[in-house]
Amino acid sequence: MVNAAFRIKVLLFLNPALNAMRDTYSMSAISSATSGVLHASQMFNRAATNTVKAANEQGDLVGAIVDQKQAEHALKANTAVLKVADDMQERLLDILV
C-alpha cells in the first residue's frame, strides 16, 4: 500500500487546486494537534518534576498528580485528533484517486 503522505504529494503535484482544500481542513487539524501533543508533553514533564519535588519536600502531591492526569488526557485527545485527520486525508485520497 502506498504511503498516504506520498499519495498527497503526487495529487498536489498533479492538481495544485487541492492545496486550498488540504490546507483548510486536514493540515490545520494536524498542525493544531501536533502543537497540542507538544504542549501536553511539556505539561507532563512539569507535573512530573513537581510530583517529585512535592514527594521530597511535603508539597502539593495531589495537585501535581492531578496535573499529570490532565496532561495525559490532553495527550490522548490530541493523538486522537491526529489519527482522525490522518484517516480523513486517506479517505480523501481514496475518493480522488
TrEMBL record:
It comes from the Bacteria. This is Flagellar basal-body/hook protein C-terminal domain-containing protein. It comes from Hirschia baltica (strain ATCC 49814 / DSM 5838 / IFAM 1418). The lineage of its organism: Bacteria, Pseudomonadati, Pseudomonadota, Alphaproteobacteria, Hyphomonadales.
